[in-house]
Amino acid sequence: MPDTRNDLMTTIVSLCKRRGFIFQSSEIYDGLNSCWDYGPLGVELKRNVKEAWWKAMVTTRRDIVGQDASILMHPRVWEASGHLQGFTDPLVDCRECRSRFRADHLEDTKTCPKCGGELTDARKFNLMFKTFMGPVEDRSATVYLRPETAQGIFVNFLNVQQASRLKLPFGIAQTGKSFRNEITPGNFTYRTREFEQMEMEFFCYPQDDEHWYEYWKNERFNWYIKNGIRNENLRLRDHEKDELAHYAKACVDVEYKFPFGWNELEGIANRTDFDLKKHSEFSGKTLAIFDEESKQHIFPYVIEPAAGADRATLAFLVDAYAVEGEGKNKRTILRFHPALSPIKAAVLPLVKRDGMPEKAEKIYNDILDNGIATFLDINLSIGRRYARQDEAGTPYCITVDSQSMEDDTVTIRRRDNREQFRVNAGSAVEQIRKELKEAGA
User: Fold this and answer.
1) Cα separation, 125 vs 193, whole angstroms
2) pTM given for the model
3) Distance between CA atoms of 315 and 12, rounded to whole angstroms?
4) Distance (Å, rounded) from C-alpha 320 to C-alpha 315?
5) Is the predicted pLDDT of residue 389 greater than 90, yes or no?
6) Which residues contact 39 (CB under 8 A, 6 or more apart)?
7) Within 13 Å and on the Cβ side, how many CA atoms surround 342?
8) Degrees (nearest 5) of the Cα angle 78, 79, 84?
């Protein structure tokens, strides 16, 4: 029997290219392994995912602020954090076909899963990308592309705390690019060498760490539900002791049921006071803060929800995908939450005559002027245009027809149930705003 899960992933990858969500990077040069470009719909979807995260984590909270640290940082940062010594994966090579694998992902570490050849002994492979700053390529000029955004938050901890006059407990959030030289990237945009993170470090009193750990587990799990992921496709998985990172007291993953299996979307970790103490030790400048209650300097504990923007975007894509009907009535739908939909509304004249395109363009411009992402779709039959918008995940379509030219009304169609109703053309913008608000967008 065919592997329907792989078939689904192949179908989604094809849809992403056809509709302009995601393209293979450098495709005209046969592509670059594990690198992807976001097209017109994809960049809007991913931007909406990041904005939904930022709204939940920063904009609507009093206890979290944002920052944007540099990608390039002093090399000592990565020495203090343990990345230079411990950020490694076990690498093995096949002596026959020359394929490379992560040893910890193999059941048999002696035999190649591709050709059956003999595998080499495992050796450590550091995942950080190395480059040089300045014109001379020597050891003194070595810098690294950051493998995570978190360290930029830790080294700026006192700067942000003093500038914002924040008191415990509080958080610092950041989104941005990170880079990991993965041995075996794959599964479309799930595991790549260049990716975008959404991380927050929540600083709290050491005695309150378990309370805040539980709090952020629930908050982050429910964020995915709120934004459209079906509950049955999400789960929390606690790390076993032998899985924990060297800095972690506890860690749990929010996992999603992708077509290729259950995999991590986000990790919530109790990092204790490891990072602040290490950077204090290596820099010679204490990152402890004065606690007015105990009248002493303390190193806060840190709870870290760390999510991948690309992984989250892929999960929302997969979860939104649906096919309804058969034969001529078959349609593909992306049921995005309206807050995430790349296009909120499409305006469609029924035909390209009788003043309908002009009226449709006026409504289109009115919606744009109100800051709502919209699209004017004129070509092809109305049925095919509805289908095209369903595939793009557009929640609402506004149709200008012959009745519109008589009584100045238009039809609004809801994507998910194909329900249609008429409103005055002049109130179409307000109706879309109302629909979006009621949907939580």
Assistant:
1) 14
2) 0.91
3) 11
4) 8
5) yes
6) 20, 21, 22, 23
7) 25
8) 75
What is the maximal distance between C-alpha atoms in the chain?
79
pLDDT tens by residue, 276-305: 999 999 999 999 999 888 889 999 999 999
Select the CATH number that applies to the domain covering 343-438 from these four: 3.40.50.620, 3.40.50.800, 3.10.310.10, 3.40.1190.20: 3.40.50.800
The CATH architecture to which 4-72+147-317 belongs is: 2-Layer Sandwich (3.30)
56-84 pLDDT per residue, tens: 999 999 999 999 999 999 999 999 998 88
Q: What are phi and psi of 92, to 5 degrees?
A: -130, 150
Amino acid identity of 50?
K
Between helices 309-320 and 40-54, what is the axis angle to 10°?
A: 110
At 11-56, the pLDDT tens digits run: 999 999 999 999 999 999 999 988 999 999 999 999 999 999 999 9
Residue type at position 350? L
Tell me which residue has tokens 């960049």: 43
Torsion of CA 347, 321, 187, 27, to 10 degrees: -30
CA–CA separation, 413 vs 422, rounded Å? 9
Q: What is the DSSP secondary structure assignment for residue 163, as one 8-state letter?
A: H
